[in-house]
Structures are given as structure tokens and as C-alpha cells.
Design a protein that fits this description.
Length: about 325
């Protein structure tokens, strides 16, 4: 009996660790260049292969090793002032087909891997625009129909003062230190109706607060939650790709970041926040799962979604 209780406690502690990792994780753009210990790499790859997903045919996560190879895949923005420096590894996010639902699932799966990497003491950085998908595809031997949709830098954070300054500077340009308040991204019953955190269930408030911390392209946070008595609806705000953040400021200097790439990346962002919502719900013992309802017109009418706002899923 004592052994069973100890095992249950260890499982609960492991699940609760995810709250810490979500709060701790930041985008790391300067790395030491040192190859990560093989034990950690093997653990991370095995984790990626067994990660829960949303669709029947899940995305595939592959690994590219070595600074020379990662530099070849990543695109420099301004001479030597790269967005990401000396990454010894890249996680390559591959979808099985051209599909927005596949992109959502990729965000859902890869963010779980990113948080596991954080737990292992590794730095990460999502990269959706400034890399060469063809070169990345050649490195991982794409199957018929597969598409490289995103990459994620992986490695030990650089400790040199100048490298740390570089990482902080790029993060500041990207707006990575800012997050919308919950009142800006949560509605009650339908779109536009104000929601009060003071009156909310503490468990749900914890889930929403950790979902709010999810990373997104140019830190746009293009998701909105609608709290209904029977379920929670997730909607996507399709923003103009280059209206804010680092993409807007740097793409005017060098035409690296393509508009259609950043638009598609918003579906990955939605998957990332769904991942946070699921992981924290499980950690605090709140039952439920996501049901994909992308573009559902009936759900859009029920929630009174305005034009340009797309229903994505329901958490039951």
C-alpha cells in the first residue's frame, strides 16, 4: 500500500511540474553550441514519439544535429546579427499533409516536447519564418506529401554576457516579455461579453492563466476563450501577419519572413495554447479533452463570432 501511495505521489508531482515549466520557459536565441548529452536527446526523442496528439495521423518530430547544419537551415536576418545563434540542434516539425488542422496538431505535439526540453534544462525557440524548409526537408528525408512547417532551436543556453544580451534584445524586439491580460482574451457565454476572473472557478482560472503564457508568433496571442456553462470554446483571431512584432520590424530590412508563412503559423499557435490547456487541466485533476471544430458555422453563430474570427475547438 505504501509503495502504491508513493507511486501515485510521484505521478502527481510529475504532472504538477508542468506548471513550473510553463512559467519558467522563455525563448532562447543564443546557445553555447555544445551538443546536448546523448541521454537527454534520446529521452526527448522517445518522448516526442509517444506524445499525445489530436488527429488520426499525427505530425512527425525529427532532429537535426550540429551547428553547421542548423546554421545552413536557419536564415540570417542582418549579417551576423542572427535571430538564433549557435543552436546545436533543431527539432523539425513535419505535418503529413497541407492542412490547417495538421498545423494545429503540430503546435499541440511540439509544445509538449518543448516543455519536456525545459524540464531537462534545455533552451528552445520556435522558428516559423526565418528558415529554409527545403534544406530542412532534405535533412530529414520527407515522405510523400509531408511538409516541414516549423523548426525549433534546441540546446544549452549561452552564458557569455554578449550572447545573453543578444537573446534579451531579440526577445524585447519580438515583444516576448509582454502578454495580454486574461480579460482581453476571455469572454463569457459569447464573443464580446465581459468575463470576470474574480468570479471564476479557481481551477479554471489556474488553467487559463497558464494558457495565457503560451508562446506565439510575434507574441500575437491570436486565441480567445469563450467560457460557457457546458464547455469552453477556443477561437482564432486571424490577424494581419506583419502588423506587429519582430516580423514587421525586420522584414522591412530583409524580405525573409513570408506573409503566408506567418498566417499559417497562427494555426500552430492555437495548437500550442491547446497543449497548455490540456496539460494544466490534467495536472490539477480537471477532466476534459479537446474536440476539434475548426470553421464550424453553427458554433460560430452560437458564440456570435464576428467576421475574421474562426471557431477552433471545444473543451468538454
Amino acid at each position: 500500500m505504501k509503495q502504491n501511495n508513493k507511486e501515485k505521489f510521484n505521478i502527481l508531482r510529475k504532472e504538477m511540474d508542468i506548471l513550473t515549466e510553463i512559467k519558467k520557459r522563455v525563448s532562447v536565441r543564443s546557445y553555447s553550441g555544445n551538443i546536448v548529452d546523448s541521454t537527454k536527446i534520446e529521452q526527448l526523442i522517445n518522448f516526442a514519439k509517444n506524445t499525445k496528439h489530436l488527429t488520426i495521423v499525427p505530425p512527425r518530430i525529427e532532429l537535426v544535429n550540429g551547428v553547421d547544419k542548423t546554421n545552413h537551415i536557419l536564415t540570417s536576418i542582418i549579417g551576423l546579427y542572427d535571430l538564433v545563434r549557435n543552436a546545436p540542434h533543431l527539432l523539425i516539425g513535419i505535418i503529413p499533409e497541407e492542412s490547417d488542422i495538421a498545423r494545429i496538431d503540430l503546435g499541440y505535439v511540439l509544445e509538449q516536447v518543448v516543455l519536456e526540453a525545459t524540464k531537462l534544462g534545455l533552451g528552445t525557440c520556435w522558428i516559423s519564418g526565418s528558415y529554409n524548409p527545403k534544406i530542412a526537408g532534405d535533412e530529414v528525408d520527407l515522405k510523400s506529401g509531408e511538409i516541414v512547417e516549423v523548426v525549433c532551436a534546441l540546446g544549452y543556453t549561452a552564458k557569455e554576457i554578449l550572447e545573453r544580451f543578444h537573446s534579451r534584445t531579440i526577445r524585447r524586439i519580438a515583444g516576448g516579455h509582454h502578454r495580454k491580460q486574461l480579460k482581453e482574451i476571455v469572454f463569457y457565454k459569447h464573443w464580446g461579453k465581459s468575463w470576470s476572473p474574480e468570479e471564476e472557478d479557481p481551477e479554471l482560472l489556474t488553467i487559463l492563466e497558464h494558457a495565457r503564457l503560451a508562446p506565439s508568433g510575434a507574441n500575437r496571442q491570436p486565441w480567445r476563450f469563450i467560457i460557457r456553462p457546458e464547455n469552453i470554446v477556443l477561437a482564432l483571431v486571424l490577424t494581419k501577419p506583419l502588423e506587429t512584432g519582430i516580423a514587421n520590424k525586420l522584414s522591412q530590412i530583409v524580405g525573409v519572413v513570408k506573409r503566408n508563412v506567418l498566417a499559417k503559423a497562427q494555426y500552430i499557435d492555437v495548437g500550442i495554447v491547446m497543449s497548455h490547456f490540456t496539460l494544466v487541466s490534467k495536472a490539477i485533476g480537471r477532466k476534459g479533452k479537446w474536440e476539434l471544430r475548426l470553421g464550424d458555422k453553427t458554433l460560430a453563430r452560437e458564440c456570435q463570432l464576428p467576421k475574421g474570427i474562426i471557431p477552433v475547438a471545444i473543451f468538454n
